Amino acid sequence: MRWIALSFKQSRNRAEAKSQLDIDALYELAARYSPVVCWRQDQHLEYAGWLVEVHSSFRLFGGAQALLSQLWADTEEFSAALHLANHDTATGAWWLGKGAPARSEHDFLDMLNGDETRLLTLPLQVLDCEPNLQATWQQCGFVQLGDLWRLPRDGFLKRFGGLALAELDSGFGQQNKLAPGLPTHQPTEIFEQEEELPFHCTQLDLIEHHAQVLLEAACHWLKRKKHGTRELLWRFKHAKGEEALCLRSAQATDSHALWGRLLHHQLARMQLDEDIRSLCLYCGHTELLPNINASFLPDPTEGSRNWNSTCDVLRARLGEQTILFAATESDPRPECSIVLQHTPLAQTHSGQTNKKTGKHAGQHANQHATELNHATLASSTPRPLWLLPTPKPLQGKSPSWQAGGPWQLLSGPERVEFGWWDAQPCKRDYYCARDSNASVVWLYQDLLDENTRWFLHGYFA
Q1: 65: which residues sit within 8 A by CB, 6+ positions away?
Q2: From CA 73, how far away is CA 109, in angstroms rounded?
Q3: How far apart are CA 37 and CA 242, in angstroms?
Q4: What is residue 344's predicted lDDT score, i.e. its pLDDT?
C-alpha cells in the first residue's frame, strides 16, 4: 500500500487557520486520486490533515511517479504551510509529514524508495502521545524513533503503555489491536449552515448580499458530492421568531447562478416587518446529477432544461401556484389518480429518508407522488384528460344503448372497484359514449348506490 499525507500545523486562531488553508478544497483535491480519504488530527490538535491511499490508483494515472508528480503540481495552489509525504503505512506517512516533509518534487518522489531507515531517524516529537511521555523519553536520552523501536517490547509495554506501542507498531507496519483505525471520510448527507448578520435590518438588498455567502457554500457542497437539489429551505430569524422561504427548482441542479436568480425574485416579493438577525440555509434531499457529454450536434434535452428554468423564474416571481406539474398516483379512482405538485416527479429509491431530525425537517420533508405503473393498465381503457371537479348526475332516464337513442356506446364497461378499506370506496362501471351533441363523454354507473344512478365524469377532447 502507499499512503500520502497532506498535513498542516493548526493555528489556535480559527479565523487565521481558515484563511491559511481551505480544508474542504483540500479534501476535494485528495478525492480526485482515491476514494479512500481519511481525516487525522493529533490529540493535542497541533497537526491535522488528510491521509490518502493511492496504491489502487497507480495504474489509472500511469504509474506511481506520474501520480505523485501530478499531485505535487495540484497542491501548489495551496499555501506553503501544507506538508506532503508518502510511505507504505498511513502512520509512517503522517510522521514524515510532521517531521520530514518533502521540500521539492524530487524529495516527494524519492520517498517511494524509502524504507524503515527514514522513519528511524525521525524525532520523537512526531509521535502522537502524552506530553509526560515525551518528557520521560528526553530524560532517558531518547532522541529518535529508532531509540524507542530498539527497546524490548515487554519492557516498553510495562513502562510506557500500550497506546504508545500501538502508535509505533502502526507506523512500522506491525499489527496491533490497540492501533486506532482510519475510517474513510464521508461527506455529510445534509447541508445546514447559519450566519449571523453584522447588523439587524429589513433591507432586502443587504440581506440578499449576505444570503449569497450561504448559497455559494451550499452549491460548493453539492458540487463536491456531484449531486443537485430541487429544494432549498431558508429561515430568516428575528426577535419574535422566523420567516420561512422555500426555493424550488423543476430539475435538480447545483447551479449557483440559477439559485441566486430564484432567491432574488423570491426576496423581492417578501415583506419583512421585523429586523432580521441571522440567516439559516438547509438542504436535506439531493439527487445524483447525470454526466453531460459535450457534442457538436444540438442537445435534445437543452430545450427541456430551458423550459424548466423559465418555469422556476415564473413561480419565483408570480407565486407557487402559477405553474403546477401533473403526476400520476397509484390509485385506480380517476379523481385520485392525478395530483398537482410544485416540482416534477422525482424518481427516488424506496427507503431513502431525510436524515434531518426535528420539527423543521418534518414540515419540509420532500414527498413525491408514486409513479403509476402504466404496464398494468390495459391499452383499450382510454381515460379523458378533462375530468369534472365533481361527477354530474344524469337527469332523466338512464342511458340505453339502443340504436337511434340519445346515447351511442363506444366502449365499456370498465369496472373500477377500489378503496373498500378507506372512507371513499367505489364500485363503478365506466362507459365511453357519444351524446346527442356528438361529444365523446365518460359515464359511469355507481353500483354502490341503491338506485345505481348514472354520472357524467369527463369529456374526451
Answers
A1: 109, 112
A2: 12
A3: 39
A4: 60
Domain(s) labelled CATH 3.30.1490.100 in the chain stretch across 191-291+303-318
Highest mean pLDDT among 62-71, 211-220, 318-327: 62-71
How far apart are the C-alpha atoms of 253 and 259, rounded to whole Å?
Answer: 9
Separation of alpha carbons 90 and 2, rounded Å: 8
C-alpha cell at 324: 403546477
pLDDT tens digit sequence for 415-429: 888 888 877 888 889
Mean pLDDT check: name the lowest of 35-49, 291-305, 359-373, 398-412: 359-373
Task: Output the nine-digit C-alpha cell for 395.
Answer: 337527469
CATH of 191-291+303-318, one of 3.40.50.970, 3.40.30.10, 3.30.1490.100, 1.10.260.40: 3.30.1490.100
List of residues 6+ apart from 341 with CB closer than 8 A:
324, 325, 327, 368, 369
Region class of 53: left (phi > 0), else alpha (psi between -120 and 50), else beta:
beta
Give the other-Cβ count within 10 Å of 246's Cβ: 12
DSSP code per residue over 32-46: TT-S-EEEEE-TTSS
Closest C-alpha among 270, 266, 346 to residue 314:
266
Provide the 8-state DSSP code for 376.
G
Do 266 and 247 contact (CB within 8 A), yes or no? yes
Q: Which DSSP letter does residue 185 get?
A: P
Residue 250 pLDDT grade (very low, low, confident, very high; cuts 50, 70, 90):
confident
Reference 186, options 2, 290, 55, 36; nearest CA is 36
Under a CB-based contact definition with an 8 Å cutoff, are residues 72 and 82 in contact? no
Q: What is the pTM of this model?
A: 0.53
Residues 6+ apart with CB under 8 A from 66: none
The DSSP letter of residue 188 is: -
Nearest in space to 328 (alpha carbons), one of 307, 344, 306, 351: 344
User: 410 is written with which cell numbers?
Assistant: 363506444
Confidence category of residue 398, pLDDT binned at 50, 70, 90: confident
Band the pLDDT of 343: cuts 50, 70, 90: low
Neighbours of 364 (CB within 10 A): 17
Distance of CA 92 to the CA centre of its chain: 34
Give the pLDDT confidence score for residue 3 in this predicted structure. 93
| DSSP one-letter string for 437-457 | TS-EEEEEEETTSTT--EEEE
Cβ burial, residue 185 (10 Å; 0-12/13-18/19+):
middle
